[in-house]
Amino acid sequence: EEEKRSGVVSRFLGELNITVRRFLFRVMSSGPIPQHIAFIMDGNRRFAKKWKLEEGAGHKAGFLALMSLLKYCYEMGVKYVTVYAFSLDNFNRRPDEVQYVMDLMHEKIEGFMKELDMVNRYGIRVLFIGDLNRLYAPVRVAAEKAMEATAKNTKTYLLVCVAYTSSHEIPRAVYEACQERSGRKDGKEEEEEELIKVVDLEKKMYMGVVPDPDILVRSSGETRLSNFLLWQTSNSLLYSPKALWPEMGLRHVVWAILKYQKNYHYFEKKKKQA
Amino acid sequence: MAVLAFRDTTEENKILCTMNVAEDFQETFDRITPKDNSIFLFLWHVVHLILRVLYLALEIFQTVESYLITNRIVKAYGHLNLQRVNYLGVVIDSDEARETAEVIQLLEWLSDIGIKKVCLYDKEGVLKKSKEVLMERFNSVKQSNDDSELDALLNIKQIAFEFVSSSDGKEAVAKAANVLFKKYYSDGDTEKPFFTESYLTDALKTLGAVELDPDLLLVYGPARCHLGFPAWRIRYTEIVHMGPLKYKKHGLILKAIHKFTKVKQNYGS
């Protein structure tokens, strides 16, 4: 009997929760909503230490936080969400920790593939961004399958940056731009004026498929970008809440969007000047 | 209708009624909210008004704090470990950078604190254009303020400046791309190397970009944003927002430097 009653109460609270969020969303969307938010998911290991959990548990808790935040962002009307899941620098960590994160990513992608119907119903397109050849083979295969399976969705985008750093992305874009230009040159006469321009480079960036982020959020209060989206954040609001990544919640998304709205005219002016 | 009817005493009906409340909550909500969104717009303005008041309170608090720090009433920031700040970057919003007097006062403060190398950035190159004026007025202020000849002799407060704008950022990478293209792609079908970071760094060096990465970046502007500072130079740079240039606070700079010296970076590992 206790269970039945508590089941009903929790459903009621759940409905209340959703209604409060919808109310909040309607208030917030009276102002401009950012199109693209990027997250640096920092603080999983500190969280595990803080709560005296075993090492991998921080990453697991981080994954749950990610799912909640994605839900809040998409509910608020954000179209593109990018997350920094694994940096090329992270390969320098202890091999067992790298293996753990790779296994966790594999497990989560497989789990995601099981919910494909729901994902396609919500129209989420998943893209894995970075030097995918550096990923362990099973993760890479799973990632490619997930990208293929959601390729037709256009409602919202989730970009997962794995094996990514800006110091890899920028020279690679230069390389690709050079390759493309040399391909073009073969058919034409020598044309000195055909120089590589900034727009050519931006087309070849991994992140060239989506607009630049409006907000870049880094959890754990650290104020650096750690080689993430350095090129794309020229006009992005940088926000560094002190909460560790597993502690991030709706209030941080709301606060980030409020800050964005407060500075909206300034950023629009900056974007126009570009 | 959201009716709590507990006339029946059976458990099932009680549960059904409560469930109705949960579902009807949504319905009721949809019914009472007006279709024209004006109440939500009103609430939005209220929220942003409260936000403005909070920011004003923060500004007042920071002004008081800065006063206390500068006048050494708060002793915590007295001894700064400036060795850790090898290179300080300052980003100024281009519109605010036109206030030359404010810029010079900032440079003066930095020099007094003991910073040796400063990189000044603004997107449109306003600071670059007024470089001569800034340097001339800064040096003249320094000379008139030097209250000991020993200071002047030993060049204790000597400070080196670098002026950077967006042409040293994305556009420089495009120029470097052309340099690399000419170098590796002008001869037919030889094997082309994959460009890693070191190729790009070398190409940028030939174009004149030889300076270090800043350790700490102070941003003067309405919002915390690096405004296009050369991307490859801020990989691990701590970025701190200082507020608008005309409301700059000396104590806040000391606090930012102090906080920076306490940061521990893992560099990903």
TrEMBL record, chain A:
HAMAP family recorded: ISPT
Q: Which gene encodes it?
A: CPT2
User: Would I find Glycoprotein among this entry's keywords?
Assistant: no
Q: Which CDD domains match?
A: Cis_IPPS
Q: What EC number(s) would the UniProt record show? A: 2.5.1.-
Kindly name one Pfam family recorded for this protein: Prenyltransf
A GO molecular-function annotation: magnesium ion binding
Q: Which domain of life does this protein belong to?
A: Eukaryota
Looking up InterPro entries in the UniProt record yields: UPP_synth-like, UPP_synth-like_CS, UPP_synth-like_sf
Assigned keywords, A-Z: Transferase
Q: Which GO terms describe its biological process?
A: polyprenol biosynthetic process
Q: Which Gene3D superfamilies match?
A: Decaprenyl diphosphate synthase-like (3.40.1180.10)
GO cellular component terms, alphabetically, are: endoplasmic reticulum
Family assignment? Belongs to the UPP synthase family.
Q: Does the keyword Isomerase apply?
A: no
Protein known as: Alkyl transferase
